[in-house]
Design brief:
The chain is α+β, with helices and mostly antiparallel strands. The protein has one domain. The protein has a 3-stranded antiparallel β-sheet. Helix 1 runs antiparallel to helix 2. The chain is globular, with a radius of gyration of 17 Å.
């Protein structure tokens, strides 16, 4: 089946199964399996690095020279760097999505095949928002969401591009994130969310800074 066909089928089946009070865990596990050719999920909800965002003006970065060209890189706090290395994870210092990929791996997401990308489910687009809805979250610019694993998936290039053009795929992935982790920063499936984006009754691990 093609990705579009799987998305359409899940849009029909998941609401029906929820109406019949089927286990959310079972529904999520089967949805993840059906989408596994295109999309992979982390197993835990965690905030890797509170305060980290994509723009280099708002965090500690260095100008380095890997190979033959110069590039900006993230500078991980020493405590976080040590923690990651104890977990046998090399901190990804590349600009744009380095910390995003690191968060995905620490959250026990499997390292995706070559050519896959890491994608934020909340990209600031106003899919499905009513006039009075909260401002759509643009995760890469928010210090509580850029490295929040509950809003990160690994995708094929096809799925990554589809997330930009197919609001039904976006809605499905956000629904799965809510069922799996309680993550709903735009308040689409629950009462108005807290700043951390989680519905009442759900929690996540904060890695750095602790406390």
């Amino acid at each position: 089946m093609e990705l579009r066909q799987v998305v359409q089928a899940l849009h029909v089946s998941i609401p029906e199964r929820l109406k019949h009070n089927e286990s959310k865990e079972t529904i999520v596990a089967e949805a993840e399996h059906d989408l596994s050719c295109w999309i992979a999920w982390p197993k835990r909800a965690l905030l890797l690095w509170e305060g980290c965002v994509r723009e280099r003006e708002n965090l500690r970065v260095e100008w380095t020279k890997p190979g033959t060209g110069k590039a900006w890189k993230y500078v991980y706090p020493p405590e976080l760097d040590s923690l990651l290395r104890r977990e046998e994870i090399n901190p990804d210092v590349r600009m744009r999505n380095g910390p995003t990929q690191t968060a995905f791996l620490l959250a026990r997401g499997e390292r995706p095949p070559a050519g896959w990308e890491h994608h934020h489910l909340y990209d600031g687009c106003n899919y499905w928002h009513t006039k009075d809805a909260v401002q759509p979250l643009h995760a890469v610019n928010h210090p509580l969401h850029f490295t929040q694993s509950a809003g990160i998936v690994a995708t094929t290039r096809e799925a990554h591009l589809s997330c930009r053009t197919d609001p039904y795929l976006v809605l499905l992935l956000r629904l799965i994130a809510f069922l799996k982790f309680g993550y709903d920063p735009d308040g689409m499936f629950s009462t108005p969310p807290k700043d951390d984006g989680f519905a009442d009754g759900y929690s996540f691990d904060k890695v750095y800074p602790q406390g």
